[in-house]
From TrEMBL:
Species name: Trichlorobacter ammonificans
Cited SUPFAM superfamilies: IHF-like DNA-binding proteins (SSF47729)
InterPro entries for the chain: Hist_DNA-bd, IHF-like_DNA-bd_dom_sf
Keyword Membrane (UniProt): no
Cited Pfam families: Bac_DNA_binding
Keywords assigned by UniProt, alphabetized: DNA-binding
Family stated for the protein in its record: Belongs to the bacterial histone-like protein family.
Domain of life: Bacteria
Record's protein name: Integration host factor subunit beta
Lineage: Bacteria, Pseudomonadati, Thermodesulfobacteriota, Desulfuromonadia, Geobacterales
Length: 93
């Protein structure tokens, strides 16, 4: 499912306009993005949690030439699936 399919499903299930459903979905995604940018952890019971992992700098290798290159430190979003969702997927329900 992509974002537009989520909006369509939400609009149909809640019997609201496509425009209103899109506003709500965008508001949720923007709030989640802002929270992670400011370093907050997001936990949605029954689904999982979103965190930002920090990786330090290291020396890597260019795969073509084999030359060492310096890789800068970075922050990346990470999703950890919750127990309830994991069990639902395993059970196929």
């Amino acid at each position: 499912m992509n974002k537009s399919e989520l909006i369509e499903t939400f609009a149909a299930q809640r019997d609201i306009s496509h425009k209103r459903a899109e506003e709500v979905v965008n508001m949720i995604f923007n709030s989640m993005s802002e929270a992670m940018i400011s370093g907050d952890r997001i936990e949605i019971r029954g689904l999982g949690s979103f965190v930002v992992k920090e990786y330090g700098a290291y020396t890597g290798r260019n795969p073509k030439t084999g030359e060492p290159i310096e890789v800068k430190p970075k922050k990346l979003p990470f999703f950890k699936v919750g127990k309830e969702l994991k069990e639902r997927i395993l059970d196929g329900k």
